[in-house]
Design goal:
The chain is of the alpha/beta class. Helices cover 47% and strands 11% of the residues. The protein has helices at 8-21, 24-31, 35-49, 62-70, 76-82, 87-109, 115-129, 189-195, 197-204, 251-277, 289-309, 340-353, 362-365, and strands spanning 134-145, 162-170, 176-184, 213-214, 223-224, 227-229, 240-241.
Length: 366
């Protein structure tokens, strides 16, 4: 069933929205964004979502199409009963909507960072998370799918489910700056990075990162490159810092692991916000992998839109007193052979974090 010519679906939708708009909390719980953000988003994507009326039926208005899209996460049949439209209409709106959302928002809310952007990101990481020269935290997230037909074991991951992988670079404000979606679930995070456009650009030196910088004028350590931080599943590189492995490590290395963990938590928190905000991450996605990829991309750019247009961004300003963060890299040793320069850079950060770059609480926590 689709919207009828007499407009019953649109009337019920208009009544529903009018009631929601009388209650800010109810509106936000249902649509997962404020009324102002909904209107802002509609102004940005409405032209792309609009359809022509025909001689046989009135088209579904852009506001209703956007509302249906924001309801994704429930089954298409459940959404269809809520508006009401046909399940096939919901499927079509979602399939078109993910591309329309991405195309409308990506240039403003997830453009590839420039050198100045990387420099600003690094400054915020130093101010908020006490890790200098850090341009982002990297991690991968498995998005669970219904087993694709004739896919063999490509999508089958170590958790025993079928998935595609979202590889993300997240800044100090929990925003996604670069994403790569669609890696097979069976592939390791390190393999996903190596095969991604971001990983290839990082390896080729094409990301336009800022010039090397000296950490402190009080120590003769020389300039260091700008880096990304990751967990032990990723390789150690001159531009990618991972924790020291092992359960028994010297105090200085435990300090480094803590400081890296503190900076790296932003990507885990961003994934947590994404899963909390969008219901598609709470259940198995019963769509083709190609559509799942586009859904993930759309929700990531919407995540950035919501954070940057929120009246007050919820930013963790510091570590609460008495909170102990787990140290990463305990007991897992990835099979990689880091170059000497990468080892030197990590040791330099380690020396700095235990000397003039130390924090008053770090020794207590480790």
């Amino acid at each position: 069933m689709t919207s009828s010519a007499d407009g019953h679906s649109w009337v019920s939708f208009t009544t529903c929205c009018r009631n929601f708009r009388l209650d800010d909390g109810r509106f936000q719980r249902y649509f997962r964004l404020t009324r102002a953000q909904f209107d802002d988003l509609l102004a940005r994507v409405g032209a792309r979502m609009s359809r022509q009326d025909t001689n046989y039926r009135r088209s579904i208005p852009a506001a209703e199409r956007l509302s249906i899209f924001l309801a994704t996460g429930d089954s298409f049949r459940t959404i269809a009963n809520s508006f009401p439209v046909g399940a096939s209409t919901v499927a079509s709106i979602v399939s078109d909507g993910v591309t329309e959302i991405w195309d409308s928002l990506v240039e403003e809310f997830m453009a590839v960072p420039t050198t100045e952007d990387w420099r600003a990101i690094a400054q915020k990481f130093e101010e908020r998370w006490n890790f200098p020269l850090c341009c982002g935290a990297i991690d991968g997230k498995h998005v669970v799918l219904k087993a694709p037909a004739n896919s063999g074991s490509q999508f089958f991951n170590y958790k025993g489910t079928f998935s595609i992988v979202l590889l993300a670079v997240v800044d100090a404000d929990y925003c996604f700056r670069i994403i790569d979606v669609g890696g097979y679930g069976r592939t390791s995070d390190g393999g996903i990075l190596a095969n991604s456009a971001f990983g290839q650009a990082l390896r080729a030196g094409n990301l336009k990162l800022p010039s090397d910088r000296v950490l402190s004028v009080h120590a003769q350590r020389g300039p260091l490159p700008h880096v990304f931080v990751a967990d032990e599943a990723f390789p150690l590189r001159a531009d990618l810092m991972r924790p020291f492995p092992g359960r028994i490590v010297p105090r200085e290395r435990r300090v480094f692991n803590y400081r890296l963990s503190r900076a790296r938590l932003v990507v885990e928190d961003a994934f947590g916000m994404l899963s909390s905000q969008w219901r598609i991450y709470r259940r198995v996605m019963e769509v083709r992998p190609e559509l799942a990829e586009r859904c993930v991309k759309a929700t990531c750019v919407l995540h950035n839109f919501l954070r940057r247009t929120a009246p007050t961004a919820a930013v963790r300003e510091g570590l609460p007193s008495g909170v102990v963060l787990p140290l990463p890299g305990l007991g897992r040793v990835a099979a990689n052979n880091p170059a000497r320069e990468a080892i030197r850079i990590r040791e330099t950060f380690t020396d700095y974090f235990s000397a003039e770059g130390s924090l008053s609480w770090q020794n207590t926590i480790i």
